Fold:
Amino acid sequence: MFLILGAAIALIWANSPFAAAYDSLLTLDAVKEVAIFTFFVSLGIELRHEMTKGALSKPRQAIVPIIAAMGGMLVPVIIFSAINFGQPSEAGWGVPMSTDVAFALAILAIAGKFLPPQVRIFLLTVSVVDDTLTILIMSIFYSTNFHLLSLVSLIGIITGALIPQRWPVLSWLTPTVKYASLPIFALFSAGVRFEDLGANFGTSALTLGIILAMVIGKPLGVLGTTWVVTKTGLGKFAAGIKWPDLLAIGSLFGMCFTVALIMSELSFGLESAERSVANLSVFIGSLASALLAVVALQIRKRSYVNR
Structure:
């Protein structure tokens, strides 16, 4: 929730009489880059753990979250691109691709404590895989027109994957990311000026494309491909995972915040009106997905309470 607090402060500050001070803060690029580096180091460590000891260490179980992550990236891109086809805003196709693992796990910890631990592992694994794939896409498609953020993200995830397992890094890195890195990144990235949005913000193709891709496309892509993979026998669930539980957490995959803000900056640059529209759309889409997930989890909780 510190992530949301950082974003809320940025929104208020950027639209206050002290907006000039916020603009001065944004010149400290190194602070944002260090914050995002530590976040991706933690993701790299999680990815290595899943590959060596977790859900990605067994081939038939690994294929389910891997394909689910790919579907969860592809369907939002299709929805966004269909709405924004032929317009300048189509450059933002990468914005709704990646689930915010920290944001999603925080909501699950609050509203889904009753679920089996295997469900959390599935959510974590899918999110880490799609974040990793998104970083690879960033390094391929945006390497020629962007500054250090894409490179820092890639180096961070590689660094995390290569840190020796005997080093107890996560014990201090996890709270650092949760309470410092992500809120600082949100503070630097979410300061949208409402005057830059334009009169048609609510009905623009960019706004609709991002929100629909996040709220509908991400759950549909993840759950749809999961169903195909498991029903065809290509992969299987880990013991303890049930379809009603996955349906209850489906909207959590639509919470595309941290990496989405990076992709927004990559797609539209720092000063464009499109970036402001995209960032606020990401904020709205993430909150909508969170609320839908909380409602679904409360409905699912009844079946556990009534056992």
